[in-house]
């Protein structure tokens, strides 16, 4: 596998990596604006720990060589997002920034937070 087969962006502000709260929403929002950090959670001896990285590659390498480590997650900022208040009804939320953990493979360009992508996502996923 190439070093960065997913072509994932680095953290927007490497000086802030490791400074964000451990507590974050998980998934959702449909779109992303910025990568804040990549996270690897470990579980050893009944306790949980998290280590943060500026790049996916560094997080993946640490995860692969560390006993009890999960695969990397990515902490993202959503300046605006898409909410699903009820199944099949998607709405655009522009006044509430979110920070959430995602699966790294969700960081596709067609999920980047642009008006065109938001419109397409709402149209494709609404019933």
Question: Can you characterise this structure?
Answer:
With 127 residues, the chain is α+β, with helices and mostly antiparallel strands. It has one domain (14-125). It has 2 helices and 7 strands, in the order βββαββββα. The strands form 2 sheets. The chain has a 5-stranded mixed beta sheet with strand order 1-7-4-2-3, with helices on one face. A two-stranded antiparallel ribbon has the order 5-6.
SS-derived structural category: alpha+beta
Q: State the assembly state of the protein chains.
A: single chain
| Average of pLDDT | 92
Number of strands: 7
Major sheet: order of its strands? 1-7-4-2-3
Proportion of beta-strand residues = 25-35%
Radius of gyration, Cα only, in angstroms? 16 Å
Low confidence ranges: none
**H and E order:** EEEHEEEEH
Q: How many domain units?
A: 1
Measured between the Cα atoms of the first and last residue, the distance is: 38 Å
The share of residues in helices is 10-25%
Number of helices: 2
Shape: elongated
Q: Report the biggest beta sheet as strand number plus sense, adding barrel if it closes.
A: 5 strands, mixed
């Amino acid at each position: 596998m190439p070093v960065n087969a997913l072509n994932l962006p680095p953290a927007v502000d490497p000086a802030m990596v490791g400074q964000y709260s451990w507590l974050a929403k998980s998934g959702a929002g449909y779109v992303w604006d910025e990568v804040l950090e990549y996270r690897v959670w470990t579980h050893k001896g009944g306790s949980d720990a998290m280590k943060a990285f500026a790049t996916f590659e560094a997080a993946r390498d640490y995860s692969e060589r560390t006993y009890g480590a999960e695969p990397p997650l990515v902490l993202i900022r959503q300046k605006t997002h898409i909410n699903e208040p009820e199944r099949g009804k998607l709405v655009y939320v522009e006044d509430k920034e979110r920070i959430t953990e995602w699966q790294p493979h969700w960081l596709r360009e067609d999920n980047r937070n642009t008006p065109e992508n938001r419109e397409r996502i709402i149209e494709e996923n609404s019933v």
